[in-house]
Amino acid sequence: MNVIDDNNLLMRKVNCKLDILSRPDGSVLLSQGDTVVIAGVYGPIEVKTQKMLINKASVETFYRPKSGTPGIGDRLYESIIQNICETSLVSALYPRSSIVVIIQEMQNYGGIISCAVNACCFALLNSGIDMKFLVASASCALDDKGVFHLDPDKLLSDKAKANFVFVFDNIAKRIIASHTSGSFNLAQYEEALELCKKACDAIFDFYKTKMKNEIANKV
Amino acid sequence: MAKQFKSLHPIKFYRDYLNQNVRPDGRLLSKFRPVIVNTGSIATADGSALVRIGKTTVICGIKAELAQPKAEKPKEGFLICNVDLPPLCSSKFRPGPPSDLAQVTTRFVADLILNSGCIHLRDLCILKEKLVWCLYADLICLDYDGCLIDACLLALLTALKTVKLPSVDYDVAIDKKVVNEDEKKSILIYNTPVSTTYAIFEDKIITDPTAEEEDLSSGLITIVVKEKELCSVHKPGGSPISEEKLYDCIQETIKRADLLNTLINTAISEQTH
């Protein structure tokens, strides 16, 4: 996936396989470089009484790390993914029910939040649930010399001065989520935003071609 | 009548107010609530601060203990933050294990301290591989009325600036520690990250939202700045916004940071007098 012809500004290879699990309504295995996650969506399904909302579906997200039980860091990812799902789904169509999104981390080699968000969107798309818009996420890193690296791997992002993760919608290309670490100035933030926006366009194209192929194969 | 209308149609109630460019509490959309900072509130702690943003109240106490450093980082001390949201502060929280919000805030605040580099963990080292300071920063919310992160960060930074650590003589050979309580020194704080929170309500941005406004809003943005540099632009999902609006919020935060910095410094200088 070439975004701009420059080695730093190249995304790692994105690959995906749909319908890999039989029980969920939608499932996907998504890899971005060496980072791999599985996402599964159940919904709309029956909801626990205490979580029932009378005007919309309650969206529950679970992020499972590769090993062990989810820690405090995973809760942060979980809350970001949950907020993104809540805004992208038309939950008002499914009152008194629940939509469950499960993300299982398989391998983390940098950019796990981006990968999880993209997998989550793919799984929702695969499940056929109503959505207001699609979402795509990209990350980039700023190194000590002030050079940007799109979609950095673990080595690059550990060394970087700052890391950025952005999530955009596919209609107006507006910012849904922004998560950063490290310190930077406003100009650098603007540059990172533009860079990730371009990368997200490439991901939206990827969604389109992948779904097209998938449907063509089924027919 | 307004009361009944508010409980029956809360969103419409707010929309009607915001269309007149005013909020139910009388503030304009871009107006902040008054902030109160008090230092040295807990005499038994090594450093402490109490912060109020409007009605939101957070108290921070820092306790220093001697500890052995980790083998992989022999020269670094520890700073362990914990945000507690007891059931007393809002009906949203129940007794029991920490809620998701408490965990997410804890993590976010700890990340910020690390990212901003406002404290160097190396400064907490007493003797390499043997003895370091471990600072436990406990943040307890006494009244939850929105902008939790802002209040927590402000309380934590103010408390860190008031920490005074005694000097320690350590004899490795016989593993004997002598703590000189009379010789107390402050720790170095390299910069002061401060944050402001904004809520998105339909197509409007509301500054410094209360808990009620946070619940009704469709998304929150928290921006952290330190000395004209950005530390974090945190928007954990919620409804999409355009770049221009986000940049406006950032500019606003940079302006606000000066005021908050002065506030912290005044509070600390008043304590020493």
Can you tell me about this structure?
Chain B: It comes from Aquatica leii. Chain B: It is found in: Cytoplasm; Nucleus, Nucleolus. Chain B: Keywords: Cytoplasm, Exosome, Nucleus, RNA-binding, rRNA processing. Chain B: Belongs to the RNase PH family. Chain B: One of its GO terms (molecular function) is mRNA 3'-UTR AU-rich region binding. The complex is a heterodimer of chains A (219) and B (273). Chain A has 219 residues and is of the alpha+beta class. Chain A has one domain (7-218): 2-Layer Sandwich (Ribosomal Protein S5, domain 2). Chain A has helices spanning 72-88, 112-127, 154-159, 186-218, and strands at 14-18, 26-32, 35-45, 58-64, 98-107, 135-142, 148-150, 162-169, 175-182. In chain A, the strands form 2 sheets. In chain A, strands 1-2-3-5-4 form a 5-stranded mixed sheet, with helices on one face. A 4-stranded antiparallel sheet of chain A has the order 7-6-8-9, sandwiched between helices. In chain A, strand 2 and strand 3 (35-45) form a beta hairpin. In chain A, helix 1 (72-88) packs parallel to helix 2. The longest helix of chain A has 33 residues, at 186-218. The model of chain A is unreliable at 1-5 (pLDDT under 50). Chain B has 273 residues and is α+β, with helices and mostly antiparallel strands. Chain B has one domain (35-272): Ribosomal Protein S5, domain 2. In chain B, a hairpin with a 7-residue loop joins strand 1 and strand 2 (47-53). In chain B, strands 1, 2, 3, 4, 5 and 6 form a 6-stranded mixed sheet that branches. Chain B has a 4-stranded antiparallel sheet with strand order 10-9-11-12, with helices on both faces.
N/C terminus separation of chain B: 51 Å
Total of helices of chain A = 4
The CATH H-level homologous superfamily of chain A: GHMP Kinase, N-terminal domain
Radius of gyration based on Cα positions of chain B: 21 Å
Silhouette of chain A: globular
- Gross CATH architecture of chain A: 2-Layer Sandwich
Shape of chain B: elongated
Strand order of the largest sheet of chain A: 1-2-3-5-4
Provide the domain count of chain B.
1
The largest sheet of chain A is: 5 strands, mixed
Structural class label of chain B: alpha+beta
CATH topology of chain B: Ribosomal Protein S5, domain 2
Largest sheet of chain B: 6 strands, mixed
Number of strands of chain A: 9
Q: Biggest interface pair, residues each?
A: A-B, 34 and 33 residues
> Measured on Cα atoms, how large is the radius of gyration of chain A?
17 Å
Summed over residues and divided by their number, the pLDDT of chain B gives a mean of 92
